[in-house]
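writing this on my phone so excuse typos. first protein, seq and then structure
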Amino acid sequence: MFSVAVIEDASAAEVSLDPVRARLLAELAEPASATMLAARVGLPRQKVNYHLRTLEAHGLVELVEERRKGNVTERMMRATASSYVISPAALAAVQPDPAQSPDRLSARWLLAVAGRLVRDVGLLITGGEKAKQRVATFAIDGEVRFASAADRAAFAEELATAVTTLVGKYHDETAEKGRPHRVVVAVHPSIPEESRGA
């Protein structure tokens, strides 16, 4: 089971957003059968079976074991990941494009950049799994409390200068075997933990 899986297919995204199926995915962090799940979620076993087959057809759950119980074979299923992220690639026709009106100070442009990040990293993960290779990535996640808007603006300017200097130092347009990497740096107000589920 992966810690995070990226859903790139529109039909798989639609399937995962159904409230009953989303609940079943959450319940399937540990293997369970349709009978076990039916008791947990308060639905008939046949209905749970229907949803499990749909989730399995889209690669969101997998068979981990078959157990024989009298005349019945019980299928133990498990979610393929602990959590899922829907890639903008699932909505290809309307996915955000950061190339349209780039504005370093726009929250909507930041969202478009974040969408591209999810899409690209999702595609890299999928390709890495097929090639049985790890994806070379690096991320920093932190929090800073600014005393004033002026301090925030000064921080952003210094950060932009530092990143631009590093990119200029290491970028080599002539490297024949070099591979381009995208650098994304974002600063946005933090959301308190208790507000995230609301």
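second protein below, same order as before
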Amino acid sequence: MSSNLYIGLVHHPVYDRRREVVTTAVTNFDIHDISRCARTFGLGGFFIITPLESQVELVERIISHWRDGEGAAYNPTRKESLSLVRVSRSIDEADQEISRLHQRRPKRVATGASPHPDSIGYDELRGLLKDEETPFFLLFGTGWGLTQEVKDSSDYVLAPVEGKGYNHLSVRSAVAIILDRLLGDRINSSE
């Protein structure tokens, strides 16, 4: 289990396609699919970060249906994965919750589709995650990605997932790939 690792799906501050800072809408698919990834890889939690009260209420209503309502009886495994979901109004608020749980500030790790001059690789972050005393907070941006301010305030920026010339994954896909690279079982092919 990697209970010292948390992920945050950031809906603000993120860029739109014109690189203006915006707040994006929460999607039902992201809540369900990313919570399943968080549960699959044994994360400590999954924060949905939005300052909009209407979006906070939407997320809470969806989670309540699957955790406490008819959905809980209909699909117990979904209830289990959604138990990891928390809603925060800012990155700092989520950061403070993780700090309270671990009695120390988490190391923030920003992600993005574009190369960053000071990025770290997956092997390096995998090594850092072995320090189970230190919590880590892996941030994923919606829209057109995390703002430069978020990246600058992070302790690390993770190298992007590299494809074959096209680099525009859904955030759900990026989360799954990155978590597998960081926490998935690695089999030595020579054995």
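The mean pLDDT is 92. thats all i got for now
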